[in-house]
Structure formats: C-alpha cells, structure tokens
Design the sequence.
C-alpha cells in the first residue's frame, strides 16, 4: 500500500521531469509564451492606467492587474494541456503509457506538475517585467512560496479540466474550438482585470465560482499587500477542486485510447 | 508451454462484433505473426491482450495471468510497441529509455546500467545523448523496441513493427528481435500487412477475418491450403479471407498509417 502510493508520486514526478527536460532541450516555446503577458501588462495595462477608468482603491491599475495577468498567462498555458494527450493518443505514446504499470492518476499528475512548471516560468517573466515597469510588489520568502503554491494548484486545476475536455472530444479540431470558446469568458468572468464589486450581479456570481478568481485573489493578497490573510482559503479551494478534477480525469484518461 | 492462451475472447461494440469467440495459443519463444485485412479485429484483439480494453466475454491469459483479473501482472509481463511513432523526439535516446525504466520500477541501482546495455544491444550507443528527432526511421523503431524490452518482458507485442521501414532497416529490426529471443527466450507476437515478411520470420501465423481466426499454422501449412506448389502466403491469404490485400479502414486509421509511413520513410 505504502509502496504503491510512493510509486504513484514517484512516477508523477518522472513524467513531469521528462517534460521539463524537453523544455530544456528546446526552450523556444518558453520564449514565445512570454510575449503575451508582456503585451497585456505593457500595452493594455499601461493604457488603462492612464485613463483611470477602473477604480482600484489604494493601488495603481498596473499593480492591480499584475497578479491577474500572471494568473491569465498560467491558465492559458494550462487550458490547452489536453492537446498534449490528444497528440500522445495520435502517436501511440498514450497507449504505451497506459500499457505500462503506471497508475492513471500518475499520468494526470505528471501532466499537472509539468503545467505548473511551465506556469512558474511565466511567473518569472511577469516578475521581471514588473520590475522593469517599476510596479511595486512585495517579494519575500513567504510571498514567493505562496505564489509558487498557487501557481502549481491553478495550473493543476486548469490542465486537469483541459484533459477532461480532451478525453471527451478526442480530436484536435474539436478541442481547439472548445479551448478558444472557454478561455476568454473564463478570464473576463473573474477578478483578473477589474474588481468584483464593479461587476453586474450575474457576472459577480460567475466570478465567485470561477477558480481563476481564487488564484488571482491569493496572488493579489501576497504580491500587493505582502499578507497571507485569506490565502489559506484560496489554497484550500484550489487544492480541493484540483483533487476532484484529477480523479475525474484519471477515470476518463484510459477511454481516450479506445 | 503456451505463453498466450485466448479462450472465447469476444469484443462487441454496440451492435458490431469486432472479435468473435477467439481461441488461440502462442507457444513460449515463438515468433507469431498475426495477419488479416483491416477491420478484421487484429487491433481490437491486441488492445485486449495488452489490457487497454476489456473483453465483452471470454478471456485470455498471458504467462498464466488473466488479462482482466490480473491486468497489473500482465503489464509487467509484456512489452508493447505501437504501430505509430511513440518515442519523444525532443528527448534523447537515453531519456526515452530512462522514462520507461522508471515507470517499470527497475531498481535505481540497475537502471543506468540496464539502459546503457540495452542501447548497446541495439547498436545505438553512439547516439545515447542525441535527440531522437534526428534519428532515422529504423533507429526510432529500435529505440521503441529498447523501451519495450528494458523490463525483460516474456512477451513482446508489436503492432506492424516494420511498416514504412526500408528493407535494410526492416532486416535490422528483425535481427534484433531474433537475438532477443535467442538470449532471453522472449516470445514475439506481431501484426503485419507484409505477407512476404510474415512468411520469412514467423514460426506460426494466424489469419483473422471478420472477427474470427480463419486459419492458423506454419507458413507452409497455410500455403498448402491453396493446393498449388508455387503458392505464396499472399495467395493463401486471398484464399482464406476472400480479400485482396489493401489498406482500407476508417479515415483515422488511414491517416495514421500514412503518417507513420511518411515519418518513418
């Protein structure tokens, strides 16, 4: 029993390690992915902070959206993760992994961890860019650790959700269609680029159940206020939904191969 | 001793019976060729044997392990090489093998040695740290065989292992498989569309048609069914299945075969 639990974690990390090695062998993907958050902060953020159209009491608008943009860039990487299992299925890699004595949930966790690692590389880019733009953030051991945990959990949830969608639709074309349809509503129905209290009631309701809001909320508390107040709730919510999603995804995963 | 024993193995999809009460045996150490036109049920049979899908009824045992009740033991007993390219091009040969070594729980102390020896066995040692995407089709197949043999499986199941390979690479792949059988007694179960190859390498063959085994035996036994002394296995195949050999099947299948050919070729 203990042995098999240890093996499950072990194999999740092996699978994630190989994903990390791929990025080391060919880091062009990381470079191209860095462009989007830089545009959001550097153009969208700069422009809107000049108009002062959105009230963000006590904060500049750039400060306000920095955690939102970080969240968005992590989530947008994770939300297309299902594409990898469709590609693995089309090449036979997926079948080979399913035939090996690897617990299904380890296959899912392996992908979730690697989505988290890609997310962390995005965080590094966003942090560096905020320094360049002179956006004031609290960077301490505690806040960095908190940011690390929130990114891993957020990436886990959204990559897990993506793998569930991929398991159901099974083809790239359908998957890309759905991916395009859900990303922007997910982003707009959250507190990423405007505060929840200026939203109409229906949007506020959507934002409150959107896991993305919990990630933004936690990151904002840590990065802008250097506080951990309420971050525990964000972490617990994200961990709980990630766990549910990984169970569901592990159940659906083998069906992709058929 | 029979290393694979299928008993009334059946798989139904809704109202279509893909595999219909299949009975067959593969002896330990045999090279067993699995033939049949597309849609005959070969792939479905292989998917059941490797525990990817569950039979609707009946069962099979591999080295005594039931494919449904002891799927975990079956997975440790077999090695599987899919038809398509299943290595990771952005990883090195060493990393591709190390991934499998760790998933198959080969003890830490032995892992590195085992991976290196396997690469040497396949004459890939010079390419240990090269990215697999720079490899030729034949080399890629060898990496895949390496991945599948690392944990010393008793049975190696290969889905069209030489489709799209040039004759030299094809021959080399078979040399390695025969060497593996000689050294470790590994049983080789493979599917193919290439009749000449099947006749050359197999100890015994089975021809599937419409979900059943239409005929089985040695190449000579199958050819004798035509009643002509100069008959090829292809003649026997046409007689048994009533089918011309051609690549048919659904869109996805054709796309995969073509993709494999273009990438391996």
Sequence:
């Amino acid at each position: 029993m203990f042995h098999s639990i240890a093996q499950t974690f072990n194999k999740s990390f092996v699978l994630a390690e190989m994903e990390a090695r791929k990025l080391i062998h060919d880091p062009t993907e990381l470079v191209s992915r860095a462009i989007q958050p830089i545009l959001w902060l550097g153009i969208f953020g700069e422009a809107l902070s000049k108009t002062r159209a959105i009230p963000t009491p006590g904060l500049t608008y750039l400060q306000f959206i920095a955690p939102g943009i970080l969240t968005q860039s992590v989530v947008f990487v994770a939300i297309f993760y299902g594409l990898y299992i469709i590609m693995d299925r089309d090449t036979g890699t997926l079948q080979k992994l399913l035939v090996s004595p690897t617990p299904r949930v380890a296959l899912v966790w392996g992908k979730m961890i690697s989505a988290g690692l890609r997310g962390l590389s995005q965080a590094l880019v966003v942090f560096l860019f905020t320094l360049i733009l002179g956006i004031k953030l609290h960077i301490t051991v505690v806040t960095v650790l908190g940011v690390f945990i929130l990114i891993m959990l957020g990436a886990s949830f959204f990559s897990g959700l993506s793998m569930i969608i991929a398991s159901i639709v099974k083809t790239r074309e359908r998957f890309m269609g759905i991916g395009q349809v859900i990303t922007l509503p997910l982003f707009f129905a959250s507190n990423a680029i405007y505060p929840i209290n200026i939203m109409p009631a229906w949007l506020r309701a959507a934002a409150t159940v959107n896991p993305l809001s919990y990630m933004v909320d936690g990151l904002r508390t840590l990065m802008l206020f250097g506080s951990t107040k309420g971050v525990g709730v964000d972490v617990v919510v994200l961990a709980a939904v990630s766990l549910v999603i990984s169970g569901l995804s592990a159940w659906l995963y083998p069906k992709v191969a058929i | 001793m029979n290393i694979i024993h299928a008993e009334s193995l059946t798989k139904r999809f809704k109202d279509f019976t893909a595999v219909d009460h299949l009975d067959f045996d593969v002896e330990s150490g045999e090279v067993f060729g699995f033939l049949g036109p597309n849609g005959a049920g070969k792939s479905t049979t292989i998917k059941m044997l490797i525990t990817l899908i569950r039979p609707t009824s009946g069962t099979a045992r591999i080295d005594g392990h039931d494919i449904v009740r002891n799927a975990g033991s079956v997975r440790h007993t077999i090695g599987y090489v899919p038809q398509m390219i299943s290595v990771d091009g952005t990883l090195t040969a060493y990393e591709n093998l190390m991934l499998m070594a760790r998933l198959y729980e080969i003890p830490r102390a032995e892992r590195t040695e085992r991976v290196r020896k396997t690469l040497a066995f396949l004459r890939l040692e010079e390419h240990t740290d090269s990215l697999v995407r720079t490899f030729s089709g034949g080399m890629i197949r060898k990496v895949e065989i390496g991945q599948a043999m690392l944990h010393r499986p008793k049975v190696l199941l290969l889905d069209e292992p030489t489709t799209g390979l040039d004759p030299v690479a094809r021959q080399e792949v078979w040399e390695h498989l025969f060497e593996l059988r000689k050294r470790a007694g590994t049983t080789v179960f493979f599917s193919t569309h290439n009749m000449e190859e099947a006749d050359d390498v197999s100890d015994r063959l089975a021809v599937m048609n419409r979900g059943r085994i239409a005929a089985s035996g040695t190449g000579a036994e199958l050819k004798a069914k035509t009643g002509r002394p100069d008959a090829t296995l292809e003649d026997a195949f046409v007689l048994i299945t009533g089918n011309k050999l051609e690549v048919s099947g659904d869109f996805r299948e054709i796309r995969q075969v073509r993709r494999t050919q273009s990438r391996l070729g």
